[in-house]
Amino acid sequence: MKDLTNLRKIAEEVDNSPWVVQESFKNGGARVIDANGFALPGCFNCGENDAVYEEVDATHIATFDPPTVIALITRLEQAEAIISQLTPTHLKMIRRALDGEQA
Predict the structure, then answer these.
(1) Cys staple from 86: which of 3, 27, 37, 90, with CB 3.0 to 4.6 Å?
(2) Strand, coil or helix: what is 23?
(3) pLDDT digit string, tens, across residues 26-50
(4) What share of the chain has pLDDT > 70, as a percent?
(5) Long-range contacts of 75-79 (CB under 8 A, 24+ apart)
(6) Alpha carbons 12 and 21: distance in angstroms, whole number
(7) Is 24's pLDDT higher than 60?
(8) What is the 3-state secondary structure (H, E, C) of 59-102?
């Protein structure tokens, strides 16, 4: 997704609170729980005591909750703003430094 405006909009439309992983289900997996205590949907025909995700998947999903997505987009926008102000001389120096060349 090149334009992050849509992704930011989606992240801002949901509750801006962290998600957590709820483990210890009889089928060995986990659920992702939002700040209101609701499980994020992930499977159909799951029983009340069944997990929705494998634990590793639930951890991955919970890690990229809306506040995290918004923070990442903000940092990317800040970095892009700084880069847009660099002169060709600055960019050349940065490229040399990344290539391990001495100034």
Answers:
(1) 90
(2) coil
(3) 666 778 888 778 777 766 556 665 6
(4) 82
(5) 76/4, 77/4
(6) 21
(7) yes
(8) HHHHHCCHHHHHHHHHHHHHHHHHHHCCCHHHHHHHHHHHCCCC
Phi then psi for residue 67, to 5 deg, are: -60, -35
**Amino acid symbol at 53:** Y
22, 41 Cβ separation under 8 angstroms: no
Look up tokens 């600055």; give the residue: 90
Q: Are 25 and 4 in contact (CB under 8 A)?
A: no
> Distance (Å, rounded) from C-alpha 42 to C-alpha 65?
15
Amino acid letter for position 8:
R
Query: What pairs with residue 39 in β-bridges?
Result: 33
The pLDDT of residue 43 is 60
Identify which has the larger pLDDT, 73 or 61: 73
- Exposed (0-12), middle (13-18) or buried (19+): which is 35, by Cβ within 10 Å? middle
**How far apart, in whole angstroms, are the C-alpha atoms of residue 78 and residue 89?**
21
